[in-house]
Amino acid sequence: MKSDIRVCGEWRSEHDRPVYTLDSDCPDCGAAAVNTAPAPFDPDDPYGKYRRALNGRDRE
Ligand SMILES: [Zn+2]
Predict the structure, then answer these.
(1) Which residues make Cβ contacts (< 8 Å) with residue 56, sequence separation at least 6?
(2) Spatial distance between the Cα atoms of 20 and 41, rounded to a whole number of angstroms
(3) pLDDT for 35-58, tens place per residue?
(4) Ligand 1 centroid, distance to 37 Cα (angstroms)
(5) What residues have a C-beta under 5 A from ligand 1, the ion?
(6) Whole-prediction pTM value?
(7) From the CA of 57, how far away is ligand 1's center (Å)?
(8) Which one of 9, 17, 48, 52 is at 20 to 30 Å from 42 when CA atoms are compared?
């Protein structure tokens, strides 16, 4: 199951602690909220496609 909970992308500079929300923006400072799921790879990772290929499956 995919989590829809997001966290303020600027909380480190705007808040004392992570601000969670279900919206796409932070309710406190209005900054873009980002998904809380840990990112195992960078979308811009040039080697990501090779690593996914090695996994034997491509979910995209
Ligand atoms: Zn915020």
Answers:
(1) none
(2) 22
(3) 886 655 555 666 666 677 777 666
(4) 17
(5) 8, 14, 19, 26, 28-29, 31
(6) 0.56
(7) 36
(8) 17
